[in-house]
UniProtKB/TrEMBL annotation:
<feature type="domain" description="GH10">
    <location>
        <begin position="240"/>
        <end position="534"/>
    </location>
</feature>
<dbReference type="InterPro" id="IPR001000">
    <property type="entry name" value="GH10_dom"/>
</dbReference>
<dbReference type="InterPro" id="IPR003305">
    <property type="entry name" value="CenC_carb-bd"/>
</dbReference>
<comment type="similarity">
    <text>Belongs to the glycosyl hydrolase 10 (cellulase F) family.</text>
</comment>
<keyword id="KW-0378">Hydrolase</keyword>
<dbReference type="Pfam" id="PF02018">
    <property type="entry name" value="CBM_4_9"/>
</dbReference>
<dbReference type="InterPro" id="IPR017853">
    <property type="entry name" value="GH"/>
</dbReference>
<keyword id="KW-0677">Repeat</keyword>
<keyword id="KW-0119">Carbohydrate metabolism</keyword>
<dbReference type="InterPro" id="IPR044846">
    <property type="entry name" value="GH10"/>
</dbReference>
<protein>
    <recommendedName>
        <fullName>GH10 domain-containing protein</fullName>
    </recommendedName>
</protein>
<dbReference type="Pfam" id="PF00331">
    <property type="entry name" value="Glyco_hydro_10"/>
</dbReference>
<dbReference type="InterPro" id="IPR008979">
    <property type="entry name" value="Galactose-bd-like_sf"/>
</dbReference>
<keyword id="KW-0624">Polysaccharide degradation</keyword>
């Protein structure tokens, strides 16, 4: 994509160029429908199983050494029965068949590229070619001009099959977050992601559950882009040695943290927070029990002060929350109201809060946790949530109105908030509030993360094509807290359908809700180090340099808004904005 900028004394030509995406080696991608599971780390276990199949049998795995393929496998769906192995010879033959099937790539056509590009196609207006280096075949996707520009293959999936996935990935320069995506009739299935680097191979591992039977298309997506800017004079002659600076003004992917009123009087807290985050949610200060402790006596002073602080520091704010369906978290005076008076109180609450902050927020959590709880439904009828969203839409239609729920991606055992139940509730609300702009809020209070389930759940929710945010991310205390937090954040950031993340770690001197990022002197804990490291990886630092002999300057940038300044001795300085 070319951008020509006619300026008074300087003409700039900006070429957004994507790095080459390389898929390899040996077995590029494989997906198997067989009811077994094998990954690289399982190889030793499989070899032990084979060696024990009969006393006289020893397994020779030398023909696979150094070539354990990047593959994917699948376990059977809910109705899939495991196979019964009755004899040692049968078991040995079955295990070998399974291994051979996986080594050959499962349902992927030509996984080891033995027949050239058979089965593989270009995706997203790009070019692909088969290459070979040191005996290793691979496919390179080049001349990319879209984030999804990559190789692809059309596959056929079966409903309720659990597909695991792996592939070796490399990029031509720098490092990029690369995600594998399956495009299906019901939506996009995110199968995993990895930060790929140049000059070495990185393994992308993941999986998903197919919710339909039919065709699908595999492709890869990169969140980061290379931008190539050329400076030329009015006669189109390149300007060499022009000074250029590129500064990110706002990340394309918002990552924030909750805050509370403690920040208003604590300079150390202020400095720590504002140097990191550009989006926030107020922990308690907008909630009904905080703003109206007695009927008719509203006090928005804390919320006003926090909003003013956020605005001064260019921090976007999510409104949280309008009402909460959990009976434990209501203003004390609400419990004794009659049905009529409760309905009036809710109308007053919605109008008062949302009109006060209309135009100053980026989203609203309208009815909090209405899959697990039903305080308002039990008193006003099953349509209560829909009525509240309809009213909210009339008061502030400028931003998305989110459901906000826990355990939808955290815990597969919680049927009350399963993705199917979430979508059912969304459709119910859409039926009552037909023109409402809705959003999917996933609280993300994790114990031990199940990343394949998290990925599959987000895929299911993404089918409805509404904005998705992880709104209250934290992990229970324990020796693996920081590691789990890193896994969750990386999984969310790499998912192409997740639009933003808020970490639930507002600081209090007596301890955070479940997870802190710093100690009381605002020195990072292990969790804070994880966040800082990821923010550095996902944020483009200010770049300074000069154009080459042809007037070009190149940079690899994460998606977002940037300010570019170019100065040359033969002309005046020019500043302009670009969005990557």
């Amino acid at each position: 994509m070319y951008l020509r900028l006619p300026l008074p004394e300087l003409v700039l030509e900006a070429l957004k160029r994507r790095p080459v995406l390389i898929l390899s080696p040996s077995t590029a991608v494989a997906v198997s429908r067989r009811r077994y599971r094998l990954s690289l780390r399982d190889w030793g276990g499989l070899r032990r199983q084979l060696s024990r199949a009969t006393e006289s049998t020893r397994v020779d795995a030398s023909r696979l050494q150094g070539r354990v393929p990047a593959t994917a496998t699948a376990t059977g769906g809910a109705s899939g029965a495991s196979e019964t192995i009755r004899t040692d010879p049968d078991r040995r033959r079955l295990l070998w068949r399974r291994l051979e099937r996986q080594r050959r790539g499962g349902i992927v056509v030509n996984p080891e590229l033995d027949t050239g590009l058979e089965g593989w196609e270009a995706y997203g207006n790009t070019k692909i070619e088969l290459r070979e280096l040191a005996g290793n075949k691979f496919i390179a996707a080049h001349a990319r001009n879209q984030p999804c520009g990559s190789i692809s293959q059309k596959l056929s999936l079966q409903r309720q099959m659990h597909y695991s996935f792996s592939a070796w990935i490399q990029v031509s320069e720098g490092n990029e977050s690369v995600a594998a995506v399956f495009k299906t009739a019901t939506g996009f299935k995110h199968a995993g992601a990895v930060v790929a680097e140049s000059k070495c191979w990185s393994m992308l591992k993941g999986g998903f559950t197919s919710d339909s039977t039919g065709p699908a298309e595999l492709y890869f997506e990169i969140r980061k882009s290379n931008v190539r800017i050329q400076a030329v004079d009015k006669q189109n002659n390149p300007l060499s040695n022009a000074t250029i600076s590129i500064q990110q003004k706002r990340p394309g992917f918002p990552i924030g943290c909750a805050m509370n009123k403690n920040i208003l009087t604590n300079p150390a807290y202020q400095n720590w927070f504002t140097s990191r985050f550009r989006v926030t949610t107020f922990e308690d200060e907008m909630k009904w029990y905080s703003t109206e402790r007695s009927p008719g006596h509203e006090d928005y002073s804390s919320a006003d002060a926090l909003l003013s602080f956020a605005q001064r520091h260019n921090i976007a704010v999510r409104g949280h929350n309008v009402v909460w369906d959990d009976p434990k978290y209501q203003p004390g005076w609400l419990y004794s109201l009659s049905r009529t008076d409760l309905s009036k109180a809710i109308i007053q609450r919605v109008k008062s809060l949302m009109s006060r902050y209309k135009g100053q927020l980026i989203a609203w959590d309208v009815v909090n946790e209405n899959l697990h709880f039903s305080f308002f439904e039990s008193r006003l009828g099953n349509q209560a949530s829909g009525d509240i969203y309809r009213l909210a839409q009339t008061v502030d239609s400028s931003v998305p109105l989110f459901l906000n729920e826990y355990n939808t991606i955290e815990d597969s055992r919680d049927g009350a908030a399963a993705p199917a139940k979430y979508l059912q509730k969304l459709r119910q609300i859409q039926g009552l509030a037909r023109n409402a702009r809705l959003g999917i809020g996933l609280e993300s209070h994790f114990d031990t993360p199940n990343l394949p389930y998290m990925r599959a759940a987000i895929d299911t929710l993404a089918a409805i094509r509404l904005p998705i945010w992880l709104t209250e991310v934290d992990v229970q205390s324990g020796p693996n807290q920081a590691r789990y937090l890193e896994q969750i954040l990386m999984e969310a950031h790499s998912h192409p359908k997740v639009d933003g993340i808020v970490i639930w770690a507002a600081w209090r001197p007596y301890g955070c809700y479940r997870m802190c990022l710093t100690d009381n002197d605002f020195r990072n804990l292990a969790t804070g180090n994880v966040v800082d490291n990821l923010l550095r990886q996902w944020r483009s630092e200010a770049l300074f340099g000069s154009t080459d002999s042809e007037g070009f300057f190149e940079a690899s940038l994460f998606h977002g808004d940037y300010e570019v300044n170019i100065t040359h001795s033969s002309s005046s300085s020019v500043t302009f904005q670009i969005t990557v």
